[in-house]
Amino acid sequence: MQDPLTAQPGARNNSASLRRALSILVRLGEDEEGLGRTLTQLCNDLDMNKSTVLRLLRPLIDARFVQATPNGSYRLGWRNAQLGQTYLATTDLHRDMRDVLVDLGEKTGETVHLVTPDFPNVVYVDKVDSPRSVRMASRIGSAQPAYCTSVGKAMLAYSPDDAVKLVVDHGLRRRTPRTITTAADLQVELARVRELGYAVDDVENEDGVRCVAAPIFGTAGTAVSAISVSAPEERLPAEAVPDIAPHVMAAAAEISRRLGARR
Fold this sequence. Notes:
Elements: H1 16-29, E1 37-38, H2 39-46, H3 50-62, E2 66-68, E3 73-76, H4 78-89, H5 93-96, H6 98-108, E4 111-118, E5 121-128, E6 143-145, H7 150-156, H8 161-170, H9 183-196, E7 199-202, E8 209-217, E9 223-232, H10 241-258
Antiparallel strand pairs: 1-3, 2-3, 4-5, 4-9, 5-6, 7-8, 8-9
Helix pairs in contact: 1-3, 6-10
Protein name: DNA-binding transcriptional regulator, IclR family
Organism: Micromonospora viridifaciens
InterPro entries: GAF-like_dom_sf, HTH_MetabolicPath_Reg, Tscrpt_reg_IclR_C, Tscrpt_reg_IclR_N, WH-like_DNA-bd_sf, WH_DNA-bd_sf
């Protein structure tokens, strides 16, 4: 989804001042170290003169969206946290992310799943079926093991060590000839997921089915969900995975952004 601040002029709000003020908030929101930006830095970052930036800052400071610090820099104010908490509290993963799943399904022509963790398993919370005649038999509300599914591995790769230990302690039963069945091999696989940014169920959970998944992050930086594309292996051969993966990662990144993740 395109950022409204960078949309084409015809689709934007007509108020240039409003857009410039919002650009200040966006820039301050990108300051992950929390040190703020000086007036000079803001001017350079946004290509505005000092008088303009000061004029735009005044109402933002009055409304507590921006805070002037004792060292002369500017940072986000507490009002942003208030709005952010309200947004997150009213955001529903299933209801509000449906459009992302539909878009991914249209781009790939295959079945899309949205899952949440319930380690040692994962639970399917939403699904968009492929328009093709042969579809996946998965059901919303059903659970599958985390260690042998692409969605499970995508989340485990960015989960605390105790979550991985829970999965291993529960047992790594062989489900197909390709299933990972040792803790050492699982750790190697999770490292590979972190390197690539996506996970693959290479016919490991169900015979004849291959899946590609990417993790969805929350505000804490850990994986809170995952999204995947699943298809019969003849429609999704191993050599096609690198073509599908960018679409899956882009969808995961969009949902992560909506959930307030910085990753």
